Amino acid sequence: MSTLRRSLLVAVAVAAVLAAAVAAWTLAPGSDQERSASGSAAIGGPFELVNTAGETVTPEDFDGRYRLIYFGYTYCPDVCPSSLMDMSRALDRLAETAPAKAKRVVPIFITIDPQRDTVEVMRNYVENFHPRMVGLTGSEQQVKTAADAYRVYYEKVSPEQYYDSEAAADRSDADYLMAHSSYIFLMGPDGEYITNFKFKQTPAEIAEGLAQHVEPQ
Fold it and tell me: Which InterPro entries match (predicted)?
């Protein structure tokens, strides 16, 4: 087997292991351990990021709309594109049965890898998914602030940690994976947390959840 093919196979395997480990390690958003004194889930908050047009974006820019938010990165080999595709298909399903509700939901993809996910990279990437999907990036600190507000875990994984010496030697410093939690958050038109969808929930299940929580205008 060639070094390149072996590296690709290892990358996919590592991503799957990381996703499973993070899912087991991270507290599910909205659980009792993550609720504030008021009883509402302590998820969400202020952030300042940059969209694919290079414009500064804050939560207030989405006031009046439900937000379906996913944190990931464009170089993710499987978990992120799968989750974003599930979001897109769920919105398409909702549009077929409840178009007034679907129009009130804006899908948002926030990178946890701003080092590689520039405005241009994000713009080209989100075009592969829902036509209304918003891609957001920013500085390392801006991204950290947003991730912390949503209690999202992420960490850079260097090649040396998971590849054999031969495979690691073939990879550049920019060729790394990101371990991260994988939840899709549903936030209300006021920015308050409503619920979340876990990795591998089907588009039908996500669409059903949206239909239950989203109110037409």
Answer: SCO1/SenC, TAT_signal, Thioredoxin-like_sf
